[in-house]
Task: structure prediction
Amino acid sequence: MALISSLLLVLVGGSLFFFPEAARSRWVWSLTPFNTRFLGAIYLTSLVGLSILLVTRRVLSVRLIVPIMWIFTTVVFVVSCLQIEQFDLARRATAIWFGLYAADCFGSSYYLWHYRRQIFMVSGHLPRHWHLYLQLQAAFMGIYGFGLLLLPTLFGGFWPWPLDVFHCQLYSAIVLTGAAASALLTRQPTPMQLCMLGLIQTTLSGLVLAGVVIVDIAVRAINWVSFNTWAWMGTFALLGIVGLALMLEARSLSPNR
Result:
């Protein structure tokens, strides 16, 4: 399941981020340039977690990756069903979209139940300052993620480019996923799990910020004197900085060091 998902993420994420013009013409709904690269960043970041799961093949990887995979795929699947008017039901690509997300949703639900004891076990040591930070990050991302999902018009106005209700609710999936990952790792994670979250955050931050800058160089659509723009960019930059710090912390806590 992880291998098939990884191959799809390489294809989909790579085309959306690196070949946006070709990807937009084949996508299952209409995309703006900013949304194209942002989706590409999300899918390429998802590839990081699944790649770690494939390489390590350890329960410690499952503890983080399976819950966030379940949250992401479930939210995207439910939002797609509720906003089905966004899709052309006559296209084969639409059937593939719903089929893949239904399979991922039900598959991750099975593994979430199968590994439920390992997922919620206490397995390591977490310094107090990181425990407090991850609690704050989980709370902030949880509030904002549910805001995008339930009050999309209000919470979506924070973005540097205009978002419709569908994209606000769709992007709530990645924010809620981050909230869940942060909350899980407040339960005394191992160094490997801290490193995984750090790598995921750093990858997402770098790809999102690079995508926004690349697109805006071409279209000149972002208001760079707006507070909201800099707050949004700063939030993603902070995620990347914290991700690097988490990887350093994981290295310092590693028993092999």
In short: Residues 73 and 104 are 6 Å apart (CA to CA). The chain has a mean pLDDT of 91. The first helix runs from residue 2 to 18. The chain is about 80% helix and 0% strand.
